[in-house]
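ASSEMBLY PREDICTION REQUEST
Request ID: AP-0331
Submitted by: J.K., bench scientist
Number of chains: two
Total residues: 543
Priority: normal
Notes: Please return the full assembly, not individual chains.
Input sequences:
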Amino acid sequence: MTHDAAIRRPPRAQVAPAAVGFASIVTALLLTELLIRIGVINRFIVPPPSEIADSFYRLFAEEHIVRRFLLTAGECLITGVMISAFGIAGGVLMHRVTLLRQACETWVAAFAAAPVVLAYPLFMVIFGRNAWTIIMLAFVAALPPVILKTIEGMAATRKVLVDVGRSFNLTPTQQFRKILFPAALPAIFLGVRLGLVFALINVVGVEFLINYGGLGQLIEDLAERYDLAGTYAAICFVILVSVLFFIALEKIERWLRLVD
Amino acid sequence: MAATAPNADDAILVVDDIVVRYETPEGPITAVDDVSFQVKPGEFLSVIGPSGCGKSSLFNVIGGLLSHHQGVVTVAGETISSPHKAIGMVFQEESTFPWRTVTDNVAFPLELVGMPRDKRIERARHFIALVGLEGFENSYPGELSGGMRQRVSLARTLAAAPKILLMDEPFAALDEQTRLLLGDKVLQIQQQLKQTTLLITHNITEAVQMSDRILVMTYRPGKVKRIVDIDLPRPRNSEIVGSEAFGRYVAQIWNDLREEASRGMRDEESHMLHHHDHQGTGS
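STATUS: Completed
Returned structure:
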């Protein structure tokens, strides 16, 4: 038999959108540089992008940004492992125990929108001024999306796939392992991705607030010294790390959608 | 040669006095009422009826997915009350696993029985070739058309070596040409494997093209209205659609179905009117 219809191929990477995106950023930077140089923007509030670019060297040479980055990355990694373990397990449990889901899902959703970072004094009292305060606060803030997306993924599994499992006489454990979990995996990974983004924001934010640790503390130090170019360079570095982090997670998610 | 109804002793599948009732807000509804028939080994039987005649309920009962029914389903002398390995189901809705390649989809039932990986891949490739999907072994369902995905589902079901292939309108979502060509493929496989097949459908052409016998059902409650023997030569393919004898069978079955389909349409319209009146009174 001939192949009966057009075959859909995965979309190829398109160069044009990336080029336009890059060009927009360059244009915005050039425009900012110009507005600062002609005095429309006060250079004591926003330093010129060229000065910020120059400061990057200092961040590596004098401020040990790589070591600080590794510290922040380590805190994010521990938080990531914790939200994946507890979030997925919690989501699965809430999906399977209807009463628990009915009782708690709204609370978890409400918690996802709460500014948990404001509770940092409480966490400092409990854990002290150390990495655990940062990790635990990020964990609490980043857990809800993982739980919610796990529940959503499990609940959204198409009934026909469950029926296929039933028709092959799968045990409940096989049904979970071979159908429900892989079917829910894209949604679960989306939850983990959101959770990791929340975790990164909270880790850097709490480092800044309690003046301890990696990149957040560096920004706080530079701001205290009124090293504006350095502060902006450090902020740009955090943004760059976030973007790369986000792109890497997105690529892993795409790969997971294709691979069993 | 006309197909003949088998005795219960010869039959591989015996469906006996099946009744399915559902509770609805408007009261209990009998979807299937006293349906009985037998299928003999190697036979192709189609169950045809208008929408709402309980075809899908019957499919679920025979497949063991529906337990709240009266009556008995027996496969090779064994009464079934839950999904049975002798029955392989192909669903109307697209049911491939999107996270598995074509090969891994087809090898799924073999994985469940613990067949070694090399052996199950080899066997899966045999069934992939049987449904005409060579070259797509490592593709994911998302890269295939609807018809190709249905063939993957069919190959997966066949890989489990069921005694009875039970299909619920497997081509319903496909266009007419693809449907006819897939019908050819199913016929070819059925003849090659001598596979006992039970097809649930509302498509008269499809039913006549493939079946030895066609069981026509009434509109709700779904009862057996008539069983028609299809005396068309085998091997068959979609070219038979143009023959005079084919047209006569289609006309004969449509005569039976027209009355039922009209009854279904009237029932649906009066239900809608009642619903509107009720809403109007309510507001």
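REVIEWER COMMENTS: Chain A is about 80% helix and 0% strand.
SIGN-OFF: pending second reviewer
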